[in-house]
Task: structure prediction
Amino acid sequence: MTVQYEDFTTKLMNDMDPALLDFVKEKVNTFIKWDLLRFFHGNPNTADTAENIARYVGRSAAAVKAEAQELVDDGLLQIRLVADLPIYTLTQDRENRTLIDQFLGACEDRDFRVKVVYHIIRGMR
Amino acid sequence: MERVKTGIKGLDQMLQGGLLPETATLVEGAPGTGKTTLGMQFIYNGIVQYDEPGLIVTFEEFPLQYYRDAASFGWDFRELERQGKLRVIMSSPEVTHHDLTSVGGIIETAAKEMGARRILVDSISHFRRLEQDPIALRELQYSFINALKREGLTSLLTRESQTLFGENRQADDFVAFTADTYLLLRYVEIESIVQKALLVLKFRGSDHAKDIRQFEITGQGIVVRSRFEGQEGIMSGSPHRMADAFVKAFVENRGAK
Result:
């Protein structure tokens, strides 16, 4: 049974573009991060607090704060202080923006989305 | 006198050629009257007709919604963003206010980078949630409008009416007082058909049309038509024919004597 599980995992991983696979494994490894990237990609000039962004994506502020900080650490979001308020924006780094574009472009394919979901759930175990 | 043309058919004529540069215009109306459409058209026309880059600051709708709505009029906002002529910024009133009053804020930087000349703020109604105290709210709105002028921007601020038809009484009408220009959009019921009316209520520093005009939201955006003829009480939302008003004012009154 274990062998079958590993085979399935390997198959799913082999099917994915290596760069995107790394991106999913290392950077978009939670559903909230995925939501945040999708939101910022669709609304690229958003500049707001974690609390307000949480309202925009329909998640809890505490969860968004932690996950947004990890996206900042990974260079996908940026943070700046406006009158002591931490404000999150999409990264201005061209390379990372291209990677986000590629990832969300690939997500338009249902099979790819299923694989991403699988990887995220697997990472949660 | 230099004018900032809206490019909206009929409106510039009402404004004697357009808005005055670096002024603030309040556009007030009930939901669905076309405030945001008018604002988007002001920004779009500025870019494509007058080579004036623009910013849209939204406190409510997601930028995605603007891209879609604009596309329905044939305006490609995404492409204009790619060209660096437009930026649709989503934020909250508290962040935007702090941002504008600090040095090197997001809006200031964007305006300078793009050479922006116009801005749509949609909508200023959301400032109410920042301050309960009316005096503090006034100060906040005043400094916000002045910060936009400081950046050399001609601004269009939308505000939602609390009533669908008829007169709207705002608890605090300080923005209407502070704004240089005040445009009112209204629903009007005439013979069981709902039409839309536009009035330039105030235009500081310029003459303007005093009549109430019909307007429509067409596939190409807002088009301002002719004035309402033979009707009175348009802004009440339920006008009556002038002949009826004449009878009521003179004939009925005389009969009562």
Notes: The interface with chain B takes residues 42-49, 52, 56, 80, 82-83, 85, 87, 89 of chain A (CB under 8 Å). The beta strands of chain A are 77-82, 85-90. The longest strand of chain A covers residues 77-82.
